[in-house]
TrEMBL record:
Organism: Paraburkholderia ginsengisoli
InterPro entries in the cross-refs: DUF2827
Top-level taxon of the source organism: Bacteria
Protein name per UniProt: DUF2827 domain-containing protein
């Protein structure tokens, strides 16, 4: 097989878009880094599918991750991985007549998004839905597989397969390099600052159960908790009477030990405001946020079973167990903080782009893809 020239799509919204508003563009860069390690690959470019111009303002190294418009890339690639931006029917037809393979890389909770759009009248595509039925393969990251695989397969008329999740600390390291201790956790005496940083935009990652976990721990030992900080919650704490009523049932709120804040960059908020992170997810058992928190050595109380070896894991929706793990972190984390950070990094190594098994798996996926007739 000749060495492959690969494009990975992104969808820029503006020229200097931050990497911290969602994980999609980080995902594209991490996948590019992993594929660059595959012996079958000659090179990887990022392909922007919107009309936003490519400028030096982009927050990544364009020598390492060349970034082109679709028109600039379409004649120089053998494989296009549609990840962060969708191509249309005309663009698909052009690639197909050139013999280019097309892969859908599924890293979003599209079934949940579709449900919410329909049930709660949240417009997404209206009457202009385009479902591409010409993919040569569907690659699904593990945390998306359970809830969205059938949604992808039936509509796209193609069988999907689970592929390795990829993460790297490269953007995190760049963001914290000038901070004290590179933004890593440092132990200190006294009551702990708890942070909940769920996006609060759908049911997948919502702040209610973490708040309940903090509440149970606070009822038993109020002097050990300095504050509960809930980010991405300012709008619902201001406008949702249901949320306000629920929160007002909690002692930690009544005692003015809880604050509900707007958006914050993860690495900065961790370094400046946090001792322990409390998290909860439904059908999102692996994501960048968990790896960022643990890589930096912060205690993470969570229920994500695909990375149960990280942080302080509790099962399912068991907030009682979550409160016990939170108390354990309060009591014990500082005594082994440096060891904890290094152990987390050892466990996270399986997700890094240079991991040998991860690279071998992507290499095998490429071999299988190119051996099949183009669709």
């Amino acid at each position: 097989m000749n060495k492959l020239r690969i494009g990975i799509t992104i969808g820029l919204h503006h020229e200097a878009e931050t990497l911290w508003n969602n994980g999609i563009k980080q995902n594209a860069a991490f996948l590019a880094e992993a594929l660059r390690h595959c012996p079958q690959v000659a090179g990887v470019v990022l392909v922007n599918t919107t009309q936003v111009p490519i400028t030096p303002a982009l927050p990544w190294d364009q020598l390492r991750y060349p970034t082109l418009s679709f028109d600039a890339a379409k004649d120089s690639i053998d494989l296009l991985i549609e990840l962060g931006g969708q191509i249309d029917g005309t663009q698909t037809a052009y690639l197909k007549q050139r013999g280019v393979r097309l892969v859908s890389y599924c890293c979003g909770f599209e079934y949940v998004h579709a449900m919410e759009s329909v049930l709660f009248r949240k417009p997404m595509w209206g009457a202009n839905l385009f479902v591409n039925q010409h993919y040569d393969d569907i690659w699904i990251i593990p945390q998306v597989d359970n809830i969205s695989r059938s949604y992808f397969e039936v509509l796209r008329r193609q069988t999907g397969r689970v592929v390795p999740f990829v993460w790297s600390p490269m953007f995190l390291d760049e963001r914290v390099k000038n901070m004290p201790h590179a933004g890593e956790y440092r132990s200190h005496e006294g009551a702990k600052r708890l942070s909940v940083m769920e996006p609060n935009i759908n049911i997948v990652k919502f702040c209610l159960y973490p708040a309940l976990i903090a509440e149970l721990a606070y009822r038993r030992r109020p002097d050990s908790i300095a504050v509960l900080q809930v980010t991405n919650a300012e709008p619902i704490a201001r406008d949702s009477l249901e949320f306000i009523s629920l929160m007002n049932q909690l002692d930690i709120v009544r005692d003015h030990k809880a604050v509900f804040l707007g958006r914050h960059e993860t690495p900065i908020f961790l370094a400046e405001n946090t001792d322990i992170v409390v998290s909860h997810q439904l059908e999102n058992p692996l994501n960048y946020f968990y790896l960022e928190v643990c890589w930096q050595g912060y205690a993470l109380v969570h229920n994500a079973h695909l990375c149960a070896d990280l942080g302080y894991y509790y099962h399912g929706n068991d907030v009682e167990e979550g409160a016990r793990r939170l108390s354990e972190a309060i009591d014990m984390h500082d005594a082994h903080a440096a060891w904890y950070r290094e152990r987390q990094r050892t466990e996270i190594a399986r997700f890094l782009p240079e991991d040998r098994q991860l690279v071998a798996t992507y290499g095998a996926l490429l071999e299988d893809l190119m051996a099949r007739p183009i669709r």
